[in-house]
UniProtKB/TrEMBL annotation:
Cofactor binding description: Binds 1 [4Fe-4S] cluster.
Any one GO molecular-function label of the UniProt entry: 5'-3' DNA helicase activity
PROSITE patterns: HELICASE_ATP_BIND_2
SUPFAM superfamilies, per the entry: P-loop containing nucleoside triphosphate hydrolases (SSF52540)
Classification of source organism: Bacteria, Pseudomonadati, Pseudomonadota, Gammaproteobacteria, sulfur-oxidizing symbionts
Broad enzyme group: isomerase
Reactions that this protein is recorded to catalyse: ATP + H2O = ADP + phosphate + H(+)
Top-level lineage group: Bacteria
Name of the protein described by the UniProt record: ATP-dependent DNA helicase DinG
Length: 680
């Protein structure tokens, strides 16, 4: 329960924030958010999980609301607070600005740190082995193609910098990063790591970061890391049962989870992995003066060739073949079973060999220059074989008839006149995974974002994340901004978006008429092709400077735009989805947002197509259940680029007549903030 002491701490933190923070503006919604977080995390709602979903519009002050309320609760209950974001920008803001500020106002002392995935850190042992001359003895076990001279030189420089403490061992702190295939060989890896048994344990960049985590009260992470760690044994982050998790930008969590729980492998990778396992086995057996494990490469190759011949017969659409409702063809399934069985046998024999080798090293020392590369090769082989088996297991499993099926597909890639086939299996419903990993275990969870609901409800979020409405708490906070002073103009438009050519031509004409030459404007497109066509039509006719996504990085475009506005010059940004979210152009930097058309998600990815097909098979409507709610959320996000502070002004114009001609137009408009709707 929320004790008097905790109430006092949280209240005093809020009082300090109000009195000491420069430019602070009192907002009832921020106070309300703190109160609901406090009640939820301390179990005030007896018949509810300690899970709260909060839609907190821009200007609410949500970051300080969740930090100043949850930190005292976490410390009082001896829990760790994990704050997870979807992108680097918010992580940087938390680390460089918000958390240092929160330390000034919070009534309890706390320490914080950033946590990254294991693969973001160098393994100093691997780096040393790679750069030493005698490491090449077993390099063929680790590389299909040995590192080139310039790569070895780069590795030597990294080693020098690390030894001189000029580099902290994190890939993110490198001005020039190694090739990804090379970094994989020198990065920390749970399959090759020997932890405390490693002679470099005390110098290890990864374990140094782990020590910081153990001393920190607040840990900043990202959604990918949280999902990866919890699904592989919870070895990086604190135990989830001893943690309160805050998912900021929680509307991204479903997409991240769908991607995370997807598996794939390809025919060439399987061939290479089997050969690597054989080579490693032979080297170890030779040292131990034993027979190598039995690996019948020809048998694996023959089955793989049988599989390839079957895959050649499929009708690929843009190099992808999607199995109907995830049901694998019998002939492909039979060959896949044979391949999976063989590789499972190889892994079993390989595991025995690994144990025997480990015992051998205890009684018969082997030179480090020989043992270390072999140990790495063993770990990598094991990792690859397990990954292949996991893919086939998911590829061949029978789906639960009560849930949407897995999406399973084949993709092909042609390089150097050689075709490589990839097998994919992905879940379309990750609700059970999230419940098993997070919702049923965590000491508390807060999910928040400026846009978390769709069409005025949390139903879509619940469906995506497997949350049950009656079991959790939900809060939609009002915006502090006066949206009734903002015109939302539904332009008189002759062409419907489906009339692609006519719509594109009319967009160009109307932009030339509506864009103010002296203002900052943002034009949001739903397709890159249409954006490029419109840019070609208007670039020599627009008076203000035109910045088109793709010509420069997003960061550079925003910098150029702001610099132009500082000089009172007009500037127009043409952007896609990434400019419809996370863009913060205040004041005169942005006074007109133009939305070219509603962003309905047409099922194009295999996962989306499989889910849409399943809903249709259940006599349900994918448009009403998925496309319309998602379009509502995207429209609100796009509109949210305009008003970022209480003093911002401007207007929104949309070139999509479906808002007035289609039955769902009223639903989309009703879900918007209370703009002044102007229908031309």
């Amino acid at each position: 329960m929320l004790s008097d002491e905790l109430k006092t701490q949280i209240r005093n933190s809020f009082i300090a924030l109000k009195s000491d923070m420069d430019g602070f503006q009192a907002r009832g919604s921020q106070n309300k958010m703190m109160a609901e977080i406090s009640k939820t995390l301390t179990g005030e709602y007896e018949k509810s999980n300690r899970i709260l979903c909060v839609e907190a519009p821009t200007g609410t002050g949500k970051t300080f609301a969740y930090l100043l309320s949850s930190i005292p609760i976490a410390k009082a209950n001896k829990k760790k607070l994990i704050v997870s974001s979807a992108n680097v920008a918010l992580q940087e803001q938390l680390l460089l600005k918000d958390l240092p500020e929160a330390q000034k106002y919070c009534a309890v002392d706390f320490e914080y740190t950033l946590v990254k995935g294991r693969s973001r850190y160098v393994c100093i042992r691997n780096l040393i082995n790679l750069t030493e001359d005698n490491a090449s003895n077993n390099s063929d076990l680790l590389f299909n193609e040995p590192p080139q001279a310039y790569q070895l030189k780069q590795m030597s420089e990294l080693l020098e910098d690390y030894s001189a403490k000029q580099w902290n061992g994190e890939i993110d702190d490198l001005a020039r990063t190694p090739d990804s295939t090379l970094w994989q060989k020198i990065a920390c890896n749970r399959f090759t790591c020997t932890a405390r048994n490693c002679e470099f344990y005390d110098e290890c960049a990864f374990f140094k970061s782990r020590k910081k985590i153990s001393h920190a009260d607040v840990i900043v992470a990202n959604h990918d890391l949280v999902l990866a760690d919890l699904s592989t044994g919870n070895t990086v982050l604190p135990d989830v049962a001893d943690s309160i998790l805050i998912f900021d930008e929680a509307h991204h969590l479903n997409t991240k989870a769908l991607s995370h729980f997807s598996l794939s492998t390809n025919t060439e990778f399987i061939k290479n992995s089997i050969r690597q396992a054989q080579g490693t086995s032979e080297q170890i057996a030779k040292l131990m003066e034993q027979e190598p494990i039995e690996i019948d490469i020809k048998q694996v190759d023959d089955y793989l060739q049988d599989l390839i011949e079957l895959l050649k017969m499929l009708s690929f659409e843009e190099d992808v073949f999607l199995f109907n409702q995830g049901q694998i063809d019998d002939s492909i399934a039979k060959v896949s079973v044979q391949i999976s069985t063989l590789i499972t046998q190889i892994l079993s024999r390989f595991a025995i060999l690994k144990d025997t080798w480990t015992d051998y090293l205890r009684i018969q020392p082997v030179e480090k220059s020989i043992a270390d590369p072999l140990n790495n090769a063993i770990g990598e082989c094991e990792q690859h074989l397990i990954g292949i088996i996991e893919l086939f297991s998911s590829f061949l499993q029978t789906d639960d008839a009560s849930k949407s099926p897995h999406s399973r597909w084949i993709s092909k890639n042609i390089a150097n006149k050689k075709t490589n086939y990839s097998l994919h299996s992905a879940q379309t419903d990750i609700s059970t995974n999230l419940d098993n990993l997070i919702w049923s275990k965590a000491a508390g969870c807060i999910l928040t974002s400026a846009t978390l609901s769709s069409l005025g409800s949390f139903d879509r979020l619940n469906q995506q994340l497997g949350l049950i409405k009656s079991d959790n708490q939900y809060l939609r906070l009002p915006s502090p901004f006066a949206f009734d002073q903002v015109d939302f103009v539904i332009a008189k438009f002759d062409a419907a978006p489906q009339q692609v050519y006519e719509h594109t031509q009319e967009v160009a004409r109307q932009l030339l008429q509506r864009i103010n030459a002296n203002e900052g404007s943002l034009v949001l497109f739903a397709s890159n092709k249409q954006m490029q066509l419109v840019a070609d039509l208007v670039e020599n006719k627009l008076e203000p400077h035109l910045l088109v996504q793709g010509e420069f990085s997003k960061k550079l475009i925003l910098e150029k735009h702001i610099n132009l506005r500082k000089k009172n010059q007009g500037s127009v940004i043409f952007g896609l989805d990434s400019f419809a979210e996370g863009v913060d152009l205040k004041g005169d930097n942005l006074t007109h947002v133009v939305i070219v058309k509603l962003r309905f998600s047409v099922p194009t990815s295999p996962i989306d197509k499989t889910l849409a097909g399943y809903l249709e098979s259940q006599k349900r409507n994918p448009f009403m259940e998925i496309s319309l709610p998602d379009a509502s959320l995207k429209l609100i996000q796009a509109c949210g680029r305009l008003i970022r502070t209480e003093t911002d002004t401007g207007k929104i114009t949309i070139f999509d007549n479906r808002l007035v001609t289609k039955f769902y137009g009223k639903q989309l408009l009703a879900a918007l903030p209370n703009y002044n709707i102007v229908t031309e």
